[in-house]
């Protein structure tokens, strides 16, 4: 079967697509939107980051048009008769559209076979509708890969509470080793296994019976920091057997370890991985040969940087946004940008990146800016309490009067912050995600995989990280 990648319709090859995408992405203006600037620094410059980044004609257009119309234009590329964007903006968005891969789930008629429903209601115990959708579609695809490799053996890397592992074992008769780092998740998976058995009326300690269409499942607690899984293979007594390595939303570099296992572990004959949490990836240090982006020689030769801010933006999911959720995003970024200005005015921005880590707060802390300041102060005081003593004035303590004064000073520019962040998250960020998957595609190609596929496996509205990478080991690598 020929290799595949979800190319935009105007491209006939992956090489052609990479060339066009990298040329656009390396443009200095695109680089600034891709991660060269950080939205929390919005109010630190004069003029603000909006005017500092965008051309005068873009600024004029964005300041004058209706905000909802602008957001529809940037998120959905949907214009209206009332919008009269400058030609340069129209060309920019048109180029972005041309370079954007198709993230829509194909109709079931387009699959090699219809995606079956989960047969047993017991299998979905503990699953959200999102997780049911993911396990249903991914397990069907993994079953096809197992058939192609001719093996029932599967390692599920980053298995969490075992939803995918359980589905593969009990719906597809696979022999599954579920590998998870976090003890609480492994224990949670074991409890769900027991609940599944009880729902089926299965007696405690009753062994799996493959004649009844049930595979096997064991849980292993292990931290994986490389592609060499030989110790797991040996512990499972699978030396010399073919194994398919899978992962549902493997975080950060765990996706890289999964792909490297096709090279570093003799028994791994195929990988089928859906990644996530790109912000937890690292950038490869060529001198130290650390794992991270880029893992392929092809992308390394292009010298396309993906700093943390770019990878964080690539985690956004505009397809899942509603007016309420996007307004919540805007409020959070607006409050964080104002408090950053307060920190600057108090000479507190002394770290290498000029940032103080606040992190996410609970929903109730975002009801107003003074309330947010109280929550942030509480968090920061806990984090920095070793630097304070009973006689020290708390530098993070922001009175309600001060918080209100700062809020009122900057609130008129909130719409500018909303527009700039949407421009970053909805136009350039999806191209960053495409680059990450091109890197993974080329890595498998360069390392002798006989088949490489990057394809859409979930409905993006249900599960935003919906790109699956499949690699099957070539004959010369066996």
UniProtKB/TrEMBL annotation:
Keyword field: Methyltransferase, Transferase
GO BP term (any one): methylation
Pfam family, one: Methyltransf_32
UniProt xrefs under InterPro entries: Methyltranfer_dom (IPR025714), METTL25 (IPR052220), SAM-dependent_MTases_sf (IPR029063)
Record organism: Lipomyces tetrasporus
Single Gene Ontology MF annotation: methyltransferase activity
Organism taxonomic ancestry: Eukaryota, Fungi, Dikarya, Ascomycota, Saccharomycotina
Positions of the Methyltransferase domain: 130-283
Protein name, UniProt field: Methyltransferase domain-containing protein
């Amino acid at each position: 079967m020929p290799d595949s990648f979800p190319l935009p319709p105007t491209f006939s090859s992956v090489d052609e697509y990479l060339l066009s995408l990298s040329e656009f992405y390396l443009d200095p203006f695109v680089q600034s939107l891709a991660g060269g600037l950080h939205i929390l620094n919005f109010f630190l410059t004069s003029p603000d980051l909006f005017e500092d980044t965008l051309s005068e004609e873009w600024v004029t257009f964005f300041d004058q048009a209706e905000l909802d119309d602008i957001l529809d234009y940037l998120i959905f590329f949907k214009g209206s008769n009332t919008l009269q964007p400058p030609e340069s903006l129209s060309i920019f968005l048109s180029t972005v559209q041309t370079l954007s891969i198709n993230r829509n789930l194909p109709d079931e008629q387009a699959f090699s076979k219809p995606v079956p429903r989960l047969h047993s209601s017991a299998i979905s115990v503990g699953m959200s509708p999102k997780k049911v959708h993911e396990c249903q579609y991914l397990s069907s695809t993994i079953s096809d890969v197992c058939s192609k490799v001719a093996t029932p053996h599967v390692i599920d890397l980053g298995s969490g509470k075992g939803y995918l592992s359980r589905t593969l074992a009990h719906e597809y008769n696979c022999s599954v080793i579920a590998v998870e780092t976090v003890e609480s998740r492994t224990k949670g998976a074991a409890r769900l296994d027991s609940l599944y058995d009880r729902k089926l009326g299965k007696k405690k300690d009753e062994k799996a019976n493959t004649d009844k269409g049930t595979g096997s499942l064991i849980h292993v607690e292990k931290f994986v920091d490389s592609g060499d899984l030989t110790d797991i293979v040996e512990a499972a007594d699978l030396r010399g057997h073919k194994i398919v390595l899978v992962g549902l939303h493997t975080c950060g570099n765990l996706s890289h370890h999964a792909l490297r296992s096709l090279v570093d572990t003799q028994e791994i004959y195929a990988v089928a991985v859906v990644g996530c949490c790109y912000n937890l990836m690292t950038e490869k240090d060529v001198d130290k040969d650390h794992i991270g982006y880029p893992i392929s020689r092809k992308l390394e030769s292009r010298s396309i940087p993906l700093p943390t801010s770019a990878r964080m933006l690539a985690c956004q999911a505009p397809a899942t946004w509603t007016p309420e959720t996007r307004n919540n995003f805007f409020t959070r970024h607006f409050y964080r940008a104002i408090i950053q200005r307060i920190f600057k005015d108090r000479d507190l921005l002394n770290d290498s990146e000029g940032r103080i880590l606040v992190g996410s707060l609970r929903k109730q802390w975002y009801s107003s800016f003074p309330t947010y300041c109280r929550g942030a102060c509480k968090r920061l005081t806990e984090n920095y309490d070793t630097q304070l003593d009973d006689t020290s004035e708390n530098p993070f303590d922001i009175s309600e009067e001060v918080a209100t004064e700062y809020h009122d000073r900057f609130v008129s520019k909130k719409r500018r912050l909303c527009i700039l962040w949407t421009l970053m998250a909805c136009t350039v960020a999806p191209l960053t995600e495409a680059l990450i998957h091109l890197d993974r595609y080329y890595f498998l190609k360069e390392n002798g995989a006989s088949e490489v596929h990057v394809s859409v496996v979930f409905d993006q509205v249900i599960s935003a990280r919906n790109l699956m990478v499949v690699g099957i080991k070539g004959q010369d690598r066996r």
